[in-house]
Structures are given as structure tokens and as C-alpha cells.
């Protein structure tokens, strides 16, 4: 999945790994960007401003493309600015929001994303801030999961005292995240795992 302005504004497209079979997935004047595959290899999360502020929407990639892009629906949509989804097959969803007043990284667990009563395990709209402004978050942006063995870490970017940093935290509750890159020039947008999924999905079980 990728973003292109070839049709006038940012829209999401997919294509084969060899560059063939390019298909447009979104069509909205507000623009759509930052796609993230779900581990079932059928659905995409993405950021869109179609309701005014940035929100997270989800769409299902059809088996055969018709004349129109597939329908997209909101997953996390509030008056706050929600963007930049990062998905892990075992750890759930990370995203950036300014819900508390400044950009921070919030998380949603897998069991809060999937409706197990549905035969298709459909994604449902979630309560992203169950404790209101007391909901736990990491101050920063551009989250990515970094998983090795049974350990799940959060990589993310931040800025402090005029320096850019990439940090690693054990969870959203980490009080002292590890700085793994720092420079007065820009460092950011970490990637700690695959950007697409292939084969038999492991999540949901």
C-alpha cells in the first residue's frame, strides 16, 4: 500500500510487489495517507481528514476491483487529531493523538479491536480513551512496534532541547525510555517490523 497524489490529492493505492496491478483504494477530496496493513492481509487502516480533524479509518480490500474504491468507515474518530497507525499481530494498535493537548502515542489492545461474536472477526469502533485525559500515553510521534521473541517494544520519535531522538520503550507505561538515536539533524519515522503481511495471519487467533 502507498500514497500518491497522481489523481490530484493524497489517496491510498495498492499494487503487487513487482509494481503491477495498481488499484486505487480511496477517493475523497480531504485526502488519505499513512496506510497500515492489518495482519489478516485484507484490511487497511489509514489516516484521513474527511471529518475535519485527522481520524483513523479502515477499509477491506476486495478480491476483485470494481469501478469504485471500497467503502471506508471510521475506527477511531473524535474531535482530537488521530493519525499514524502502527499494527502488531499480537500487541494491537498504536496511534498518535493530541487528545491530551500535545501529541502522544496511545494504544488499543487486540481484544478491544476485534468483535469475537462476529464470525468474520470484524473490526469495531473502539473507545480509544477509556480513562479520558488520564489514559496512558507516551509523549512523542511516529510509533512502530519492535518485536523480538516474546518481547514487544515501542519505537517512536521525539524532540527535546533542540535535538531529535528515536526512543525505545517497553510499554506505554515506561517511565524512562531508552534513547537509541539522537541528532540535531532530523531522525525519526522508525520501523521495527514488516510493513506488509504475507501468508497465514497469526492475529486474530
Characteristics of this structure?
single chain; 205 residues; mainly beta; four-stranded antiparallel beta sheet; globular; disordered C terminus
Folded structure, characterized:
With 205 residues, the chain is mainly β. The chain is built from one helix and 15 strands; from the N terminus they run E-E-E-E-E-E-E-E-E-E-H-E-E-E-E-E. The chain has a four-stranded antiparallel β-sheet, with no helix packed on it. A four-stranded antiparallel β-sheet has the order 8-9-10-11. The model is unreliable at 196-205 (pLDDT under 50).
Q: What distance lies between the first and last C-alpha atoms, to the nearest angstrom?
A: 24 Å
Number of strands: 15
Helix content: under 10%
Shape: globular
Chain-averaged pLDDT = 81
- The low-confidence parts are 196-205
Largest sheet: 4 strands, antiparallel
The helix/strand order is EEEEEEEEEEHEEEEE
Radius of gyration: 17 Å
- Multimer state: single chain
Side-by-side strand order of the widest sheet = 4-5-6-7
Hey, roughly how much beta strand do the residues contain?
35-45%
Number of helices: 1
Q: Structural class given helices, strands, pairing?
A: mainly beta
Provide a compact summary of the structure.
The protein is mostly beta strands and 205 residues long. Helices cover 2% and strands 40% of the residues.
Write the topology of this structure.
Elements (H helix, E strand, L loop, with lengths): L1 E3 L6 E4 L8 E2 L7 E6 L5 E6 L6 E6 L11 E5 L5 E7 L3 E6 L6 E5 L1 H4 L24 E2 L1 E8 L2 E10 L2 E7 L8 E6 L22
Antiparallel strand pairs: 1-2, 2-3, 4-5, 5-6, 6-7, 8-9, 9-10, 10-11, 12-13, 13-14, 14-15
Amino acid at each position: 500500500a502507498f500514497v500518491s497524489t497522481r489523481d490530484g490529492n493524497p489517496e491510498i493505492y495498492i499494487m503487487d510487489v513487482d509494481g503491477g496491478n495498481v488499484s486505487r483504494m480511496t477517493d475523497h477530496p480531504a485526502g488519505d495517507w499513512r496506510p497500515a496493513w492489518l495482519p489478516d492481509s485484507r484490511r487497511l487502516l489509514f489516516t484521513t481528514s474527511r471529518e475535519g480533524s485527522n481520524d483513523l479509518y479502515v477499509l477491506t480490500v476486495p478480491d476483485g476491483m470494481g469501478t469504485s474504491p471500497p467503502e471506508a468507515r471510521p475506527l477511531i474518530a473524535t474531535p482530537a487529531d488521530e493519525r499514524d497507525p502502527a499494527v502488531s499481530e499480537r500487541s494491537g494498535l498504536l496511534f498518535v493523538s493530541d487528545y491530551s493537548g500535545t501529541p502522544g502515542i496511545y494504544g488499543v489492545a487486540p481484544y478491544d479491536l476485534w468483535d469475537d461474536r462476529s464470525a468474520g472477526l470484524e473490526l469495531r469502533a473502539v473507545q480509544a480513551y477509556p480513562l479520558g485525559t488520564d489514559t496512558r500515553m507516551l509523549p512523542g510521534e511516529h510509533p512502530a512496534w519492535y518485536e523480538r521473541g516474546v518481547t514487544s517494544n515501542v519505537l517512536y520519535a521525539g524532540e527535546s532541547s533542540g535535538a531529535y531522538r528515536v526512543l525505545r520503550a517497553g510499554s506505554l507505561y515506561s517511565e524512562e525510555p531508552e534513547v537509541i538515536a539522537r541528532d540535531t539533524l532530523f531522525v525519526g519515522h522508525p520501523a521495527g517490523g514488516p510493513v506488509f503481511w504475507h501468508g497465514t495471519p497469526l492475529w486474530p487467533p
